[in-house]
Write a structure and sequence with these properties.
This protein has 364 residues and is an alpha/beta fold. It has two domains: 152 residues, FAD/NAD(P)-binding domain; 154 residues, D-Amino Acid Oxidase, subunit A, domain 2 (D-Amino Acid Oxidase, Chain A, domain 2, 2-Layer Sandwich), CATH 3.30.9.10. The chain has nine helices and 21 strands. Strands 6-7-5-15-16-17-14-19-18 form a nine-stranded mixed β-sheet, with helices on both faces. Strands 9-3-2-13-21-20 form a six-stranded mixed β-sheet. Helix 1 packs parallel to helix 6, helix 1 packs across helix 9 and helix 3 crosses helix 9. Bound molecules: flavin-adenine dinucleotide. It holds the Pfam family DAO.
Length: 364
Amino acid sequence: MTTPAGTPARTADVAVVGAGIIGLATAERLSAQGLSVTVVDGHGPASGATGASGGLVRALDLSTSAALSWAAEGLDRYLRRGPHGLWPEVREHGALTLFGADGAARAEDAAARVRAAGHTADVLDAKEITAAFPGIAPPEDGFGVHEPRAGWLPARAVAEAVLRDADRVTLLAPARALEITTAGSRVTGVRTTAGFVRARAVLLAAGVHSADLARTAGVELRLRTRSVSYCVFAPRTPVTGTLPTVLDTTTGAWLRRWDDGTGILAGAPSTVRDVPPVVTPGVPDAEAERVRGVVRHRCPGLVGAELVGGVTAFDALGPDGGGEVTAWPDPAGLVTATGWNGGGFKKAPAVGRYAAELLREAAS
Ligand SMILES: Cc1cc2nc3c(=O)[nH]c(=O)nc-3n(C[C@H](O)[C@H](O)[C@H](O)COP(=O)(O)OP(=O)(O)OC[C@H]3O[C@@H](n4cnc5c(N)ncnc54)[C@H](O)[C@@H]3O)c2cc1C
């Protein structure tokens, strides 16, 4: 690859490809450190997985200890509402992670790890869960880890607020990145449909599309799409009382109150891979039936509930499933942040902080 001839259209310390929550959180951190950043996006802010996100935030992440520490740092930053206290407020409905009857030790261990990461977490038994949250039916003789200061956020509004905080950031959109340009073994910038952006460091945070772009710089990323969608149900009888965000480890079901306070947003993990990377409003009836069939075990109020909305979308799935941030030695200056597999929103402030550290070094 070579640097295109001609005068560069723009110059920045760092070029970020992708104005999803990962790219924007990174751009904000770079900007706060005095670096100039150009963010390019083929459509506009939050037009990929971020705009479809359920926005559940909690410190607990059962995949890896690195993921838990990113999620805990992310929650902390969301609770502080960003560097200037201007991001939307976390809807602190609490988060409840449910385990089966054999899950006491796992629940105790998970709660201890959340506390070690600086957040409050209590273990509740099934009786205590039913008393505190009458809308939830825990697994028989099961347990829950309750994080009282967790909850959910409106993901698109957060992405827009992060961008507003990033005052040294120029957003170039619509501008589709076509190629990561290099000279020798260093990146020199990004060629886009809106011109060339010259930069000493480049972040690829374009979700699953990052793989094609990385290849233009000789880097192979193993990414696939995974179907992630949710339904919005209107229960026949309102689910009253506190309804925390719920993630059930026995069925995979997850839910929260919908933004209007009456409906319930609910999802169940899908094993469908390699779906088209598009976001579509609504869900097919068969998918709604599948989700209702899983989620009703934990939220009986959803039996017979009417489907009133939802989204059919995707996220990028990487080899380890939890997401990776990598500074590549060749070409130097290239950093990738990909593979969040349905959990990138809660981690984004921490991922952005870490990616910004790597990019700052790469740009110096
Ligand atoms: C339905 C759903 C619910 C979810 N719920 C949760 C949740 O409750 N909690 C949680 O933590 N996570 C959740 N997630 C996951 C989370 O939303 C994602 O992991 C996260 O938003 C990924 O952010 P990103 O910035 O990596 O990617 P994206 O948001 O996909 O951003 C990538 C951007 O790159 C741009 N782009 C792509 N190709 C190019 C190109 N060639 N040139 C320029 N720009 C390009 C796209 O337009 C897009 O804006 C959910 C995801 C989905 C789909």
